[in-house]
Amino acid sequence: MQALPPPYTLPRPVGAALSRLPAYPGSALLVAAINLALARHLPQDVHALLAGKRLSIRVRDAGVAFDFSCTGRRFAPCAPQAAPDLSITANAQDFLLLAQRRQDPDTLFFSRRLVMEGDTELGLVVKNALDALELPVLDPRHWSPRAVLERRAPALARRLPRLPSPFGSFGARP
After folding, report:
1. Which pTM value belongs to this model?
2. Full 3-state SS string of the chain
3. Which tens digits make up the pLDDT trace of 94-148?
4. Which sequence spans correspond to the domains of the chain?
5. Which fold has domain 12-132?
């Protein structure tokens, strides 16, 4: 893991604008991404522990929350709850660092940049399950249109010319 970068907070006008967005569409989008990228990779015992639990991902500086629950082996958006079973709060930058695996959740937690409230045992199960995934599912290079095409239609991808990566050297393939 890299050294913890200085905290970045979205500018107040951006956070104010984002906080006015309706909650449900954002939760539906997050759940679609979780179901596509992660749900099938979580062990059965994790799904069993999550079954029926209400979770909330709260992006502090954006003033938004994404509420969802686990229904069997999939996740579903749900209406916001005052007291979900587990709520995980951080700024947008810190969630991005976690998703890209450029930062360790424990480091963010102990520096008070990541907050878990509610069922902390459930939080540890979620953290440990995500830590155990060895897939590049949260790497933006894995989800670029070219990478998806290479996985789904390799013959077509080979016929297309290479374009510069939108991620700069970060997106360069070895």
Report:
1. 0.75
2. CCCCCCCCCCCHHHHHHHHCCCHHHHHHHHHHHHHHHCHHHCCHHHHHHHECCEEEEEEHHHCEEEEEEEECCEEEECCCCCCCCEEEEECHHHHHHHHCCCCCHHHHHHCCCCEEEECHHHHHHHHHHHHHCCCCCCCHHHHCHHHHHHHHCHHHHHHCCCCCCCCHHHHCCC
3. 988 887 778 888 899 999 999 999 998 999 988 888 888 765 555 667 767 788 8
4. 12-132, 140-171
5. Nonspecific Lipid-transfer Protein; Chain A (3.30.1050)
